[in-house]
Write a structure and sequence with these properties.
heterodimer; A: mainly beta; about 55% strand; B: mainly beta; 7-stranded mixed sheet; 4-stranded antiparallel sheet; 11 strands; about 0% helix; globular
Amino acid sequence: GEDVEQSLFLSVREGDSSVINCTYTDSSSTYLYWYKQEPGAGLQLLTYIFSNMDMKQDQRLTVLLNKKDKHLSLRIADTQTGDSAIYFCAGASGGYQKVTFGTGTKLQVIP
Amino acid sequence: NAGVTQTPKFQVLKTGQSMTLQCAQDMNHNSMYWYRQDPGMGLRLIYYSASEGTTDKGEVPNGYNVSRLNKREFSLRLESAAPSQTSVYFCASPSPIGVYNEQFFGPGTRLTVL
């Protein structure tokens, strides 16, 4: 099965950029996702990228995909205190809609 | 639409007790999933149901059973709870339209087994 690895913790100052990194093992992942989990809540889809794309930009969010290195990153520009959460990368492959989630990165934004 | 709902929100059990976690979705999705979330381990799939009447094991099924009661409801049962099952449990349902495989999550059940 797929392994998805992330660093556990990231701390940034409000207004700075945050970069959350993820590495995965399954090169057949069709879609790669970033989910956000706020305290006490379930996960919500933040953004996604097709495996045939290198970059996707969505307002303050930039997703970069390096297929050769199997590396996915999420950049949040002008990070705000409301961005404090746990961020999960995930990959989808397989015929029954199986999604494999990473270990999650806790982002702490310091005012 | 409520999306995905779960009950209860919190539960404390003693070792050996049993309980059922309930999940329901009102989005008319075919598939439903149960995950557990543990610190530093992300989300791990316990069981899933690709459609009404079918269930399959995920990554960590031992100690759990599931029932897909109808299209809306998917329950997770712990027959004899163990401290290792202390976790946060999430029910999710992927959308068959829109973003491929976007998973809609319930709010979670926080379970402590003493």
